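Subject: design request, 74 residues
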């Protein structure tokens, strides 16, 4: 039996219980989906343009995860 990954972030002040489950979990799922697409593309671009390839490969961690995780306060 497989279980889905669940991310828990405690110590936040964005909701009364001070723990978030939904936002970080959906952020992780969005990160994984975008990484599957962007990391191979970034690796190919890296061969020709190093900085552009690094930015593409960093996009899931620096943009996708924070935006999704912070948009849901619970």
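Subject: RE: design request

Done. Sequence follows.
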């Amino acid at each position: 039996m497989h279980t889905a990954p669940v991310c828990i972030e405690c110590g936040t002040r964005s909701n009364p219980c001070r723990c978030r489950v939904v936002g970080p979990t959906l952020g992780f799922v969005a990160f994984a989906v975008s990484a599957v697409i962007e990391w191979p593309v970034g690796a190919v671009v890296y061969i020709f343009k190093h900085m552009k390839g690094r930015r593409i490969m960093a996009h899931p961690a620096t943009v996708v995860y924070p935006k999704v995780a912070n948009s849901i306060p619970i």
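The mean pLDDT is 86.
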